Amino acid sequence: MINKLVEEIKKKQAPVVVGLDPMLDYIPAHITKKAFEEYGETLAGAAEAVWQFNKGLVDAVYDQVPAVKPQIAMYEQFGVEGLMAFQKTVQYCREKGLIVIGDIKRGDIGSTSKAYAVGHLGKVTVGSKTYAPFDEDFATVNPYLGSDGVKPFMDICKEEKKGIFVLVKTSNPSSGEFQDRLIGQEPLYEIVGKQVDAWGRELMGESYSYVGAVVGATYPEMGKVLRDLMPKAYILVPGYGAQGGKGKDLVHFFDKDGLGAIVNSSRGIIAAWQKDPYKDRFSPENYADAARAAVLDMKEDIANAVL
Which among 137, 177, 186, 188 has the fewest CB atoms less than 10 Å away? Predict the structure, then answer.
């Protein structure tokens, strides 16, 4: 799947992933009104609004970006109905030819880690049949529990030719409380980066590994160091847009050929209709057009900085 991701980035000239992280506050009133009329002000109604919102977004941007990244917590908050909306979203994105990065940030050990990996990336056997429950192409993984938590994902990735992105240096302000702590003379994030590189060399695609890394756009100098430490790892870069990252911050995340990284924007795209400079140009009914405009602006910003 890493080979397909690189191919799609080249084809669409867009190292961009759209974060499908819906909150009810982001969804225009005409969508929630219709969903509530059908299902009531219930968890099912909320999930239906999320699904219809996502569908409009995907229809507007699928030809411009290679990948989407649904954050499962935004769906889990609505319980089982929300997870059904997550599943429908993943399936629809795949039908549209998009690569799906399941932002699940799972991190456990042994059989539990394997069960997470099977549920999101692999296949589960039920009697004489097998099923791919969620069937994302990539998943985000928390490495805090060590190799016991990551290896089961790697085993499934090897079977299914899928991939993972391991959290190395996250974009949130308090990430340094643990990730920047010195172990001897090295910060913890560098030690994790070296381990990601080692894991990745066990599971190589054509040019890059099936084991990628998450490194926040809000820490460009650290990104430069980690790019050198993980030359074969594709880097998923959150923190663009709403969290403050800009195109100029991204230069060091990429290789000399302009590959090696894919940049995520969530609120900056899916809620663009509520924000400058789009809110004066697009009505709530045209929220998807606003998202498309934000994608095009993001692509231009990154291209001007990186290429």
Answer: 177
The pLDDT assigned to 306 comes to: 79
Domain ranges, ordered by start, for the chain: 2-306
Say if CB 1 and CB 50 are below 8 A apart.
no
pLDDT score recorded for residue 1: 84
Query: 268: which 2 tokens?
Result: 């900056």
Instruction: Yes or no: say if 107 and 132 are a contact pair by the CB < 8 Å rule.
Output: no
Q: How far apart are CA 235 and CA 165, in angstroms?
A: 8
Neighbour-count burial of 288, counting CB atoms closer than 10 A to its CB (0-12 exposed, 13-18 middle, 19+ buried): buried
The two tokens of residue 166 are: 């391991």
Q: Is the pLDDT of residue 242 over 80?
A: no
- Residue 69: name the closest of 265, 254, 241 by CA: 265
Q: What is the pLDDT of residue 243?
A: 54
Cβ neighbour number for residue 37 with a 10 Å cutoff:
9
Q: Work out the pLDDT band at 307, boundaries 50, 70, 90.
A: low
Tell me the one-letter amino acid at 282: F
Compute how many other C-beta atoms are within 10 angstroms of the C-beta atom of residue 201. Answer: 13
162 a catalytic residue: no
pLDDT tens-digit readout, 96-110? 999 999 999 999 999
Residues 180-204 have a mean pLDDT of 96
Alpha-carbon span 52 to 55, nearest angstrom: 5
Nearest to 230 by CA among 203, 190, 183, 259: 190
- Please say whether the beta carbons of 68 and 92 come within 8 A: no
Annotated catalytic residue, options 105, 123, 224, 275: 105
Say what the pTM is.
Answer: 0.95
